[in-house]
Please model this.
Amino acid sequence: MVPGGVRFPMLSDPGGRIGALYGVYDEERRLDLRGRFIVDPEGNLQSMEIVSVQVGRNVTEVLRQLRALRHQQETGELMPCGWEPGKPTLPREAEASKLSGEVWKNWKPRNAFS
Amino acid sequence: MGVKIGASAPDFTAEAYHQGSIKKVRLADLRGRWVILFFYPADFTCV
Model:
């Protein structure tokens, strides 16, 4: 179904043991809910999302968050709402305080939307 | 342990299928890389 096969490992979670560790195991349904977690290179959790079983996830958003988190860690910059590569960032927190009330000069609300 | 943003993600080891073979995957072995954990309830739900 996927040309070349699926590139990432597909793990088995019998009994929802790992799901329970992550707070996504549903005891009544005996299934893992659609939890999604992003872990950084230091092993720290940086993002998580769980959605009700009837509604699927937004993969574009997962990739957006991953890119934003990576950029943030690599540069120390702040990543405003809806940031995607090419959109403006804000300077590191120490400098950002000077921007109180002035952010609108560098960032417009339309940047929050795709 | 629990899940907490900014704290260490709970470590685990699991059997996994990856490109033709079965192997063990441990989260702690993936340090140095960004990791996405993508839980799902069952195959072919179409959701």
User: Anything to note?
Assistant: The mean pLDDT of chain B is 95. The interface with chain A takes residues 1-12, 14-20, 23, 25, 27-28, 30-42, 47 of chain B (CB under 8 Å).
